[in-house]
Amino acid sequence: MAKQKKSNPLAAAKYDPVLFIETVLIDPETGTPFMLYEEQKRFLRAAFTLKPDGTLPYAEVMRGAPKKSGKTTEGAWALLYCVCAIGGRGAEGYCIANDFEQAQSRVFAAAVKIVRASPLLYRAARISSNKIEFPSTGASITALASEYAGAAGANPTITVFDELWGFMSERGHRLWDEMVSVPTRKVSVRLTVTYAGFTGESDLLEGLYKRGLTGTIIAPDLYAQLGMLMYWTHEARAPWQTEAWKEQMRLSLRGNAYLRLIENRWVTNESSFIDVGEWDKCVDPTASPTPRDKRLPVWVGVDASTKHDSTAIVACTYDDKTKHVRLVTHTTFQPSPDDPLDFEATIERTLLNWAEQYDLQEVRFDPWQLVSVAQRLTRAGLPMVEFPQTVGNLTEASSCLYEQVKGHSITLYADAEMRLAASRAVAIETARGWRIGKEKQSHKIDTIVALAQAVLGAVRGAGGHSITIRSFYGGDDTPPADPSDIRVERGVRLERITETELDYLSRRQ
What we know:
The chain is an alpha/beta fold and 509 residues long. It folds into two domains: 9-241, Rossmann fold, CATH 3.40.50; 276-465, Nucleotidyltransferase, domain 5 (2-Layer Sandwich). It contains 17 helices and 21 strands. The protein has a ten-stranded mixed beta sheet with strand order 3-4-5-2-6-7-1-10-9-8, with helices on both faces. It has a six-stranded mixed beta sheet with strand order 16-15-12-13-14-17. A three-stranded antiparallel beta sheet has the order 11-18-19. The chain is elongated, with a radius of gyration of 29 Å. β3 (126-127) and β4 (131-134) form a beta hairpin. The chain has helices spanning 9-12, 17-24, 38-48, 71-86, 106-117, 119-122, 170-178, 203-213, 243-252, 255-261, 276-281, 344-357, 367-379, 391-406, 416-424, 446-465, 499-508, and strands at residues 60-64, 92-96, 126-127, 131-134, 139-144, 158-162, 189-194, 216-219, 222-225, 228-232, 270-272, 293-303, 311-319, 324-333, 358-365, 384-386, 410-411, 425-430, 433-438, 487-490, 493-496.
């Protein structure tokens, strides 16, 4: 009796993307086959089921859905299906990293994990840092950075753009143009997986989205037209996107961030920074500025201006027992074009006084205008920490303050001017991050900017990152022969102290 020929799962699943995914691919997180939910099945079959002539029905395909809907994994599924099942010999797949991904696309990373977990593919694959090759068919998947020159000459079976809202540079636009589907292949498609961007900023995605909306609705949230299929939903339909999760996100995210990330809605780049009602919940009516406590560790933020905006200096501490940040004290100075601020008489004098009154841990400042001030204060022993107002720093400080207020993890004393500043602050968001800003030039929000820096310092410092004066005399505490050679250590930085500054340091002890 003749032996029964074993069936080939790849061949059996070749013409059904859902069958291919559920029988050939293995979920690297569980070690079991993937299980798709209905919206995924409907979209994948509509986009990637071959027509009778062996071509795909759409050259342009987009899936827009809320964060954590599984879009990156879906991109990896489509990539592997097109390259391994229907692309034929020499199929070429490309994963494109957006302007804000430093290296390879997340879709490529997901594809690598899936291939490693799927025996039918792994034994046929050769994987390197930016490429998956299948030598038996000459097929490959390549990760590309957002540099269009590297894509010249590509003949793509499928190109996957992940989070297209982040393609804002000219090189990103050129790469998008370069990786258009080609007529020389029966199977050639450009797939975008993303959520919404910023109106007026994410131009590439916004144009594609508006084009997609002109199509005919063929199923819930599924738009089809000649050459293009778009799925765009505001609903969190994945089984793991529960109501409890959405409520948690609602409490954790700012209003516009929630709309964009969780509801997949286009937003402007400005929204209210803090609900003044949330601010009021953090105010302790019995609290007041702490006039003096040399045992109290404080972290300071400085936001300085010489002529136009006010200058604010804010001090905070961290209570290890309650796990709350507490506002200790603050002060502001208002310059004018005719009467510029004297930094030495205001900022320096205030910080030197505070160093006498509190256990100063850090003074965060933007070096743009305060280099000379910081140098003098550093020589005087104050722990000055440069905090340039880069996007990364501003995002971190703004987010930290927002989280403390939103979580009612900061204790404030009542202050009408600071409350007004909080009510006038807006969150200005871009693809690179967000920062505290203001709607009108006349609005004063400097105390909120300085507060954000101080809060970040206190939260970080509570974890043991504070900077302290370790020794006046060096490692063995032996007095030097020359008193002016006393050194102050900050990490690995040592500085010589002058005779005048020595008097101040001696009094601190």
